[in-house]
Amino acid sequence: xxxxxxxxxxxxxxxxxxxxxxxxxxxxxxxxxxxxxxxxxxxxxxxxxxxxxxxxxxxxxxxxxxxxxxxxxxxxxxxxxxxxxxxxxxxxxxxxxxxxxxxxxxxxxxxxxxxxxxxxxxxxxxxxxxxxxxxxxxxxxxxxxxxxxxxxxxxxxxxxxxxxxxxxxxxxxxxxxxxxxxxxxxxxxxxxxxxxxxxxxxxxxxxxxxxxxxxxxxxxxxxxxxxxxxxxxxx
Length: 235
Fold this sequence. Notes:
Blueprint: H1 4-35, E1 42-54, E2 57-70, H2 79-105, H3 113-130, H4 142-150, H5 156-159, E3 161-167, E4 177-182, E5 187-193, H6 196-209, E6 213-218, E7 224-230
Parallel strand pairs: 3-6
Antiparallel strand pairs: 1-2, 3-4, 4-5, 6-7
Helix pairs in contact: 1-2, 1-3, 2-3, 2-4
């Protein structure tokens, strides 16, 4: 039967082992993104509000749920390097699970429930990450991204929509701001704003809603002040 001890083991597995598996998965994406020259690579574990930041690492409130890897430009940007990044999480989870299993099988480590849970969660993550499917929020699995590369479909970078927050008038005296939207076909105005903060907020909402996307925030002098990237995956 499922007793108190089993409940405690389940909680440890869910709140400790699973986040470790998720962190390893994201580490795979980060590793290959760094190898191929990714700029501003960041990794987030969990969902919800950010609790803690250290370097490229970000821990979120519900740290046991999901994870994301962000990166901007790639020094070596082609289908092969993108494929490496997309497959990085699957590779790291598979290798770590096989490594732990090998240590247990060879007798270096005594068999235990937490080793079993680590291996189970690792291959669970590999299985669902490799399934080629899309999410309702506009994202998709690593497997879907890899399959699109094999089928020669546009990559995330080729599909992204660009949003631009800039002065409505280049005149220094002007106080109006505008949000522009640019995709593969045209550049058009979304709307005007009396203040920059309102334009930036709207740009953030639109970019988040239409991932993959990129938000450029310009200064009054017409120079790029900040660039934000909203990639749906790898997760």
